[in-house]
Amino acid sequence: MTDTHDTPDAPEADGRMSHRAIRSFVLRQGRMSDAQTRFLEAKMPVVGIAYRNARIELAEVFGRQAAQVVEIGFGMGDATAKIAQALPDTDFVGIEVHGPGVGNLCKLIDTDNIPNLRIIQHDAVEVLQAMIAPDSLDGVHVFFPDPWPKKRHHKRRLIQPEFVALLASRLKPGGYIHCATDWEEYAVQMLEVLSAEPSLVNTANDYAPRPDYRPLTKFEQRGLRLGHGVWDLVFRRR
């Protein structure tokens, strides 16, 4: 789950957003289990990519040429792991700041032997600005970001025009952004913001059918049984 903090400001003179203007999270560090701590300490040196203020070549990281997809805010990583397993010909990078989720995904990568998945434990805005080259990604996933339901907190939502412009700039032509939310009012805002980005085009008339690669989470399945909606949005770069 992703999150934002502070009010977005105007981009800097070089076109980058100031990291003070928007973040992809609010740090609410939960208690880590012994297993999460153990796997984070043992496996992050293997499956983690350390943040640095320099471009990275994901083909070198994974040791092959393949489609490259970034997921922002993977929560506990269960869906991320399933997607990577279902799409072995695609390389995935999950970005998350919360230790328990990072530790859990390290465990899943190790126990399920998932070679096409890496982790960056850092703010996604800074990672995208510094480490990911423009026109390089085949896809970006943003699943169930924090809806910040109170109106006075809407400015903290992740899907804002400045952030969407940054995401779009990192996509190859034809690359996609896939967002999902179970909060209808946020889905409406997402649709408006994504539709307003001139470099993106909607793949559906409004909301898209859930792609087969996105698994239903236990939380989502329970919500659907209770009659709650889930909205997927899939936009492609022109």
Automatic annotation (TrEMBL):
Residues given in the record as S-adenosyl-L-methionine binding sites: E71, E96, D123, D146
Domain of life: Bacteria
Keyword vocabulary terms for this entry: Methyltransferase, S-adenosyl-L-methionine, Transferase, tRNA processing
GO molecular function: tRNA (guanine(46)-N7)-methyltransferase activity
UniProt keyword Lipoprotein, yes or no: no
Stored InterPro entries: SAM-dependent_MTases_sf, tRNA_(Gua-N-7)_MeTrfase_Trmb, tRNA_methyltr_TrmB_bact
Entry-linked Pfam families: Methyltransf_4
Protein name as annotated: tRNA (guanine-N(7)-)-methyltransferase
